[in-house]
Amino acid sequence: MPVPLLSVIPMGIITVLFAVTGTGFSAVSRMANDGKPMRHNLDDWDRMMLRRDYRLTGSSRGQANNPQAPPEFATNSFWSTERV
């Protein structure tokens, strides 16, 4: 049974638009993660390591190879203080 030609054009447009949005989302998510793929199923340990890496390097996906933390790391904490 032949495919009606009137339905091929809208189906092609829909397919192209899905491909464009998927590629755009992938590109934007990779740019937000320093060119690395998105992380999935993060637990508390992974989130803690992301915060630590962000405080050390300024990027949540970057890692430092220096075994000594910078001096400002001693006072740069993710714990917020409360006013009493």
Short description:
By secondary structure, this protein is mainly alpha-helical. The protein has two helices and no strands.
Give a verbal description of the structure.
With 84 residues, this protein is mostly helical. The chain has a domain at 12-63. The protein has helices at residues 5-32, 44-57. The chain starts with a helix and ends in a 27-residue tail after the last helix.
Q: Provide mean pLDDT, rounded.
A: 83
Helix percent reads: 40-55%
Radius of gyration from the alpha-carbon trace, in angstroms: 23 Å
Can you write the helix and strand succession as a string? HH
Please give the number of β-strands.
Answer: 0
Distance between the termini: 78 Å
What kind of sheet is the major sheet? none
Instruction: Decide which structural class fits the backbone.
Output: mainly alpha
GO cellular component, one term: mitochondrial inner membrane
Membrane topology: Single-pass membrane protein
Pfam families: MWFE
Keywords: Electron transport, Membrane, Mitochondrion, Mitochondrion inner membrane, Respiratory chain, Transmembrane, Transmembrane helix, Transport
Question: Which characteristics define this entry?
Answer:
0% strand; NADH_Ub_cplx-1_asu_su-1; mitochondrion; transport; single chain; mainly alpha; 84 residues
